[in-house]
Amino acid sequence: MSLVSDYYQVLLDIGLFLFFVIGAKVAILFTIRVKRPHTMRSRSMLWTGFGAWWLISGLWQVFPWVVTKSSDALARDLYHNQPAWLVAWYHYFLTFWTAKPITWNILAVTFQILVGIMLLTEKDNLAGRISLVLAVIFSWSVWVVPEAFGSLLSSYSSLVTGTPGAGFIAGSIGLLLLVPTTIWESANIARNINRGLAILLGLAGVWQLNPWSGFFGPNIARMFAVSPVPRITHIIHTMMQFALSYSVALNSLLVIICLGLAFMVWKNNSRATLLIISGAFFLWLWLSGEGLGLIPAIGCNMSTAPLLFLLIIISTGDTTIKTRDANAS
């Protein structure tokens, strides 16, 4: 209990520092007007959404769920679906983290919040691009270690559980945003993202069929998150009981939805219908398999589903529209 008290005391000091940092940024934004470069609306929306995802991830990291754990308990939380041989690789990381959990968790909180603030306030300039580079490095580090390659090496990997991993998707988005605006326009990067998403959803649907996962039977329970938040836990438990009773029907439905969304994204015809269906689907994924991000995690806490839905938003419809400033010019 004293560990949690010490953690919150240090966090309060850091919070005061961040309060003044945010205040200074807001003051600068209102006093110093900087003309934004002309850019495609899809790129601008992706940048803003990405910054918001980082900011909320930092806020989610505030919860002390990975501060009070022993090495073995943290391993169970982070790697409960991973093969034993892979978990053994992370022994030194777990020992390193649990030696000074307050320090490392506060650094993770501070880094993610600062990256979120910088991305939301420094768009398409040197500071923004440096923030993107740092975000890419951090994201892929999270993907390799705390996320264990997004569960790709586990026989229980699924889009429901967040595969291919928030760190991988976030790192890829960071690289895409580092591509110059002129190339975004000439190559229509948003359209290529659309194609990539369709392929990813198609592969997710095919992978959901794999018989060795046991998702057509009792092992479907492995897809559901374990959250420390009681209300979320109750909702997830209810959904899991339903899944155990109708595992064949539910897993078949997941396959059909993934393949259907892949087709709809590729065709890119009725954007409104696509956004409603995909929004409902990814919200279900985010709640059931990722616990709304409110689960023990180290970095990229907001998880995969919000990032994939953000990519669908910016890559569907007319992807050639520019921002209002660009049209006005």
How is this fold's topology laid out?
Layout: H1 2-31, H2 41-61, H3 71-79, H4 84-89, H5 91-99, H6 101-121, H7 126-144, H8 166-178, H9 181-187, H10 189-208, H11 230-245, H12 247-267, H13 271-288, H14 305-315, H15 324-328
Provide the descriptors you would attach to this structure in a database record.
about 325 residues; mainly alpha; 15 helices; globular; disordered C terminus
Provide a descriptive summary of the structure in words.
With 329 residues, the chain is mostly helical. It has one domain. The chain has 15 helices and no strands. Helix 2 (41-61) runs antiparallel to helix 6 and helix 2 (41-61) packs antiparallel against helix 8 (166-178). The longest helix has 30 residues, at 2-31. The protein is globular. Mean pLDDT is 90; it is low at 325-329.
Class by helix and strand content? mainly alpha
Largest sheet properties:
none
Question: How far apart, in Å, are the first and last alpha carbons?
Answer: 59 Å
Identify low-pLDDT runs: 325-329
Shape label? globular
Radius of gyration: 20 Å
Estimate what percentage of residues fall within beta strands.
under 5%
The beta-strand count equals 0
Instruction: Please provide the ordered H/E string of secondary-structure elements.
Output: HHHHHHHHHHHHHHH
Oligomer: single chain
**How many separate structural domains?**
1
Mean pLDDT, rounded to whole units?
A: 90
Transmembrane segments: 12-32, 44-63, 127-145, 165-184, 196-215, 235-265, 272-288, 294-314
Keywords: Membrane, Transmembrane, Transmembrane helix
Quick description:
The chain has 329 residues and is mainly α. The protein is built from 15 helices and no strands.
